[in-house]
Structures are given as structure tokens and as C-alpha cells.
Specification:
Blueprint: H1 4-22, H2 42-45, E1 60-73, E2 76-77, H3 87-90, E3 99-100, E4 106-124, E5 127-145, H4 146-154, E6 165-192, E7 195-223, E8 228-241, E9 248-262, E10 283-299, E11 303-310, E12 314-317, H5 327-338, E13 344-345, E14 354-357, E15 361-371, E16 374-383, E17 397-405, E18 409-412, E19 415-418, E20 422-425, E21 427-431, E22 434-438, E23 454-465, H6 474-482
Antiparallel strand pairs: 1-4, 1-23, 2-3, 4-5, 5-6, 6-7, 7-8, 7-9, 8-11, 8-12, 9-10, 10-14, 10-15, 11-13, 15-16, 16-17, 17-18, 17-19, 18-21, 19-20, 21-22, 22-23
Length: about 500
């Protein structure tokens, strides 16, 4: 049984998506660990916990635009002793060829994009509201075996693996692209003694742009020689859409809680309220927990989805002369040669849909005041595997974050573990309402020279109004100086 073109196109599809995510490209980052614990950036910290906008030290935070760069893999790297980022614009010809880490059984790659567009966060007493807009792109590869990673780099003509039988199992590739508009609400549920407990929710409406997913449960194959590649058996499924704005829709939810142990009593405390002296609550420590990206996107205008299952030998003859073509021909070949015939085509969009799950994760935050402006905290993001469902997995990260924080200046130096094993050193600087940072600053510093397995950079432009107008007038200062509100209650001294 001979199916020359179909096997080539399946292989080419798998490896081309892998290569897309395995090598650094300009994309936007999502978690930005360096500013994840900030008390002055609610429009960015709400992405890891919507409860963080409650009791913010910024009354109105207007986000203008944000962008960044983030990619990580554990296979391909640039040698640190021979490479620095200035080569990209100073001397591109001197950029060395990448090296490859060939001592792992399976590899991963993750690229996450986020362009944060205009939005705001507003404190309304014990309630807070926020609106966020943006675009996201997530590509995730899990379980790529060493032999396929080698072929992705060397090509199927690589003599070192020729004639050897290989098996790929539990390999998953997913890419999801969408725009979003989100509404957040948070409320301080408990404000008494030295404790504040807040809860928050973000509801996101998603507009699909494109998505693709491939799951390979097993693929047994052999590159026999320079002309013949044989597939012994293959089992898996696929789904892919034609990229287009608004070709899918969906909903997602973030849920979070935040507990603060304050340095002084918060009885009768209302944030940014002139009646209570316009004071802020300074904490000894805060603890937050959130569930992120619960939801999915359904694509229906133009999509293809099906399964491939074949236990009979499939021989690809003269594969080196094959020429892959467009997506429609590729899907037709998968349907004809490798699928079980249950392909959902886009000619019946009213009854069929291709669904992809969002990159659901758990987020934990802990922050402790040390002295004066100094804090030390930790943020953990744990992604969940997709198993039998299409959708990218969020990359798990753990960060230790020492920082110094003032009203108009903030500096943090996060130490980040990606997938709990790949460490990097970062830095974040906030000057008034401008945030700039990287969670892998070591790869940008001449002389540090770590091997570069990825890149990370982010920047945000905001306009922050720290206090409402009623807190800036003479009457509020007079009431605060007398230690009484309009109702005559005794007030603590305000914190400016």
C-alpha cells in the first residue's frame, strides 16, 4: 500500500509548525513576572489575578499600549560565548549557527504573544472596575521526540538516523490566535481589624483569528534510505482553520481572591475616599490565588477537523522530490490517505464547529513587606495539559521577586524558573507610568554570556492618576488633619 504524498505532507505539517515555535521570533509576552506583584499597575496585574485591582494604590490607571517579546524552547540555542543581541543590527553576518541540545528524550517549545491595547482600572470605594483589550497568540509544542527534533533541523536526508525505526508518542502541537475584550470587577469583601479579603472576576469575550491543533498518540516510522520513508502505523487527530478575523467566537473567565494582612487597623477604611482621609492600606503580606483562562473558542466559518488512524504500512517513495502545496490540498490528502473518513468540513458550519480550549492555569502570588520600600515575593503559574482536547498549554513558571516600590518608581529583579528547571534572571523598571522589563536580562548583558534558549522583553505605556480629585483639595486635607470624617468618626493619619 503506497501513499507517497500524504505521508510527506503530514510530516511536513508537523515539523513546520515545530520549527515556527522552536526559533526566536518577535512576539509579545504574557506573564511578565517582574511586575506581577506591583501595587501600582492594576491594568497589568489583573492578568494574573483580577482581585488585584481591589484596593489598588492607583485610583485610575489608564493603559495606553503595551508590547513585548517572549519565546522559550529546550532544544535549539545560540551559544552565549559567541552571540549577543547587538549582532542583529550591528553585524548580522557574524551571528553564529545555532547549537542543539541532543541529550533529552523529548522537547518542548512555547511562544506566547500579547499586545495589550487601551483599557483602564478604576477604584470606586470598596468596588473596582476594569476594562482590558488586546490580541494574543499562543503556540505550544509538547513531547517532540529527539529523532523528530533532529529531522526538523537536519532534514530527512540525515544519514545518522537512516534505516532506524522510530516511534513518536503523546506529541501535541497547538496554536491559537485571537483578540479579546474583558470586563473585570473586584470587591473588598472583608475590611476589619488588620485584614482585607478581596475577590475578583474577569469575563472575556474572544474573537477568533485562527487555530490549529495536532495530537499524535503514536507514529511508527522509518527513513529507509534517501528515497523511501515508511510509516508502520499512525494514530491521532487534527483540526485547523483558515486564518481570518472573526472566524471564531468564545467566552472565558478569570477568578481570583486576595488576602492582605495590614500593618495597621483598617476599620472604617475605604480606599481613595476623602471621608476617611484618602489613606492607603499598607500590608505586612498579601496572598493571592486565581484560576485563569477558563473557556474555549469555537471556529466555524472555514475549518477542517478529523482523525487519522492507519495500522497498515505506508510507503513514501521519492520523498525528496515532493513539493507540499496549500492547506486545502493537505487536508484533502489527510482525508483521503490517513484519516478514518470522519472529517468535519466547513461546508456545514451551521452544525459543525472546531473548538479549542484556552490555556487554563492556576496562579499563586505571595508578597511580603521587608522594610521601607522593600518587598520580596513569589509568583507561580501552573499550566494544565490538554490531553484529548485541542488547545495550547500555558508554560508553568515559578519566580522569586525582590523589589523596591515607591509611588513613582519601582524596581524588581525576578529569578524565574520556566517549567521549574530552566532558570533566568530578569529586571523590571517602572518610572511613573512607564514599565519596561525582561524576565531574561542575562541574555542581553554583554559579558554574562548564558546560552540563549529564548528571549523576553516587554514595555507598557500608561497614564496613572494616583488620587481622585476630592483627595487633592483643601477640605479633605483639613478633615484628615483633624482626624475626623464628615460623620465625625475619628480617622487615622492619612498616608500621602
Amino acid at each position: 500500500m503506497i501513499h507517497p504524498k500524504s505521508t510527506f505532507r503530514l510530516t511536513q505539517l508537523l515539523l513546520s509548525i515545530a520549527l515556527l515555535a522552536m526559533f526566536p521570533t518577535l512576539i509579545f509576552s504574557q506573564d511578565e513576572m517582574g511586575q506581577s506583584l506591583s501595587n501600582y499597575s492594576p491594568t497589568t496585574t489583573l492578568k494574573l489575578n483580577p482581585a488585584s485591582i481591589a484596593d489598588s494604590k492607583v485610583w485610575l490607571d489608564i493603559h495606553l499600549v503595551g508590547a513585548g517579546l517572549s519565546v522559550h524552547n529546550d532544544f535549539a540555542y545560540m551559544p552565549g560565548n559567541d552571540f549577543n543581541w547587538s549582532m542583529l543590527w550591528k553585524n548580522p553576518e557574524a551571528i553564529p549557527d545555532p547549537n542543539f541540545n541532543r541529550n533529552r528524550a523529548k522537547y518542548m517549545a512555547h511562544a506566547e504573544a500579547f499586545g495589550q491595547l487601551p483599557g483602564f482600572s478604576l477604584v470606586l470605594g470598596k468596588n473596582s472596575l476594569a476594562i482590558n483589550t488586546g490580541v494574543r497568540s499562543i503556540t505550544d509544542i509538547r513531547g517532540l521526540p529527539e529523532h523528530l527534533a533532529n529531522y526538523a533541523i537536519e532534514g530527512f536526508q540525515w544519514a545518522d538516523q537512516m534505516g532506524e525505526a522510530f516511534s513518536a508518542t503523546n506529541m501535541r502541537i497547538a496554536s491559537l490566535n485571537f483578540a479579546q475584550v474583558g470586563l473585570s470587577y473586584a470587591r473588598m469583601l472583608k475590611v476589619e481589624n488588620n485584614e482585607i479579603l478581596s475577590a475578583g472576576i474577569t469575563v472575556n469575550r474572544f474573537i477568533g483569528i485562527g487555530g490549529a491543533g495536532i495530537t499524535i498518540e503514536n507514529w511508527d516510522y522509518t527513513v529507509i534510505d534517501s528515497l523511501n520513508l515508511q510509516t508502520s502505523s499512525i494514530n491521532g487527530k487534527y483540526g485547523v482553520t483558515e486564518p481570518a478575523f472573526n472566524n471564531g467566537r468564545g467566552w472565558g473567565v478569570d477568578l481570583g481572591i486576595m488576602y492582605k494582612k495590614t500593618r495597621s487597623s483598617v476599620d472604617s477604611y475605604v480606599p481613595h475616599d476623602s471621608d476617611t482621609g484618602c489613606r492607603s492600606s499598607d500590608y505586612i503580606h498579601k496572598i493571592g490565588v486565581a484560576v485563569l483562562d477558563l473557556g474555549r473558542i469555537s471556529f466555524d466559518p472555514v475549518f477542517y477537523a478529523g482523525t487519522f488512524s492507519n495500522a497498515e504500512p505506508i510507503l513514501w517513495e521519492d520523498y525528496s522530490n515532493a513539493d507540499p502545496e496549500d492547506l486545502e490540498e493537505l487536508i484533502d490528502l489527510l482525508d483521503e490517505e490517513l484519516s478514518d473518513g470522519n472529517v468535519n468540513a466547513s461546508d456545514t458550519p451551521e452544525t459543525e464547529q472546531f473548538r479549542m480550549l484556552l490555556p487554563t492555569a492556576l496562579s499563586f502570588q505571595y508578597d511580603r513587606w521587608i522594610n521601607g520600600p522593600f518587598y520580596i515575593g513569589s509568583t507561580l503559574v501552573q499550566g494544565f495539559g490538554r490531553k484529548n482536547n485541542f488547545g495550547p498549554q500555558r508554560m508553568s513558571q515559578l519566580a522569586l521577586i525582590p523589589r523596591a516600590e515607591w509611588k513613582r518608581l519601582e524596581l524588581s529583579i525576578p529569578i524565574v524558573l520556566r517549567n521549574y528547571r530552566d532558570p533566568s534572571l530578569g529586571v523590571m523598571l517602572r518610572i511613573n507610568s512607564i514599565i519596561i522589563g525582561s524576565d531574561r536580562i542575562g541574555s542581553w548583558i554583554p559579558g554574562v554570556n548564558p546560552d540563549v534558549y529564548g528571549a523576553d522583553f516587554y514595555i507598557h505605556f500608561k497614564y496613572s492618576i494616583f488620587n481622585r480629585s476630592a483627595c487633592k483639595g483643601k477640605s479633605s486635607r483639613v478633615r484628615a488633619s483633624k482626624g475626623k470624617s464628615k460623620s465625625g468618626k475619628v480617622l487615622p493619619c492619612p498616608s500621602w
